[in-house]
Amino acid sequence: MPRYLGIDYGEKRIGLAYGDELGVATPLPAVIEPNWETRAKVLGQQIAQRRIDALVVGYPYNMDGSVGFKAREVDAFIARLEEQFGLPVHRIDERLTSHQVETQLRAMGRKNSNDRKTRATGEIDSRAASLILQDYLDLHHPALMPEPWDED
Question: Which of 62-66, 100-104, 135-139 shows the lowest mean pLDDT across its residues?
């Protein structure tokens, strides 16, 4: 199975996740560097270190399914990724992933999931990247999904 790097793009932070041979997406530290050159360097290190075969980028469709300003911003980011790293890039719908992560953190007892420290580290962004990547893996590698228990 290919190795994937899941990406939740943001202007300030880029959330990252790794998809392994078992079909499990795991959050990685977010890219919080201030400019493209240093961000690209960190992304390149992750790609090389984990021997990434393809990138999976969360695509911000509007709630009605249309493509808006933010999606065009992500298109420009994807073009940079393709040019810089020459890897295939797969887009996957990311609607509501950040909200889903914040809900999960609150359920875990993390009442301040929206505080500055949590935002600054990119934890929410990388957890969102993990959800995005897991959605992709579940859709495109269903053989990796566990079989339901047969209770006969």
Answer: 100-104
Q: If you search the block for the tokens 């790293």, which residue do you land on?
A: 85
C-beta of residue 32 within 8 angstroms of C-beta of residue 42: no
SS3 17: strand
Q: Which of 40, 8, 41 is nearest to 25 (CA)?
A: 8
**Considering the entire predicted model, what is its pTM?**
0.81
pLDDT of residue 84 exceeding 90, the answer is yes
Residue 83: burial class (beta carbons within 10 Å; 0-12, 13-18, 19+): exposed
Q: Which residue ranges make up each domain of the chain?
A: 4-142
The domain made up of 4-142 is a member of CATH 3.30.420.140? yes
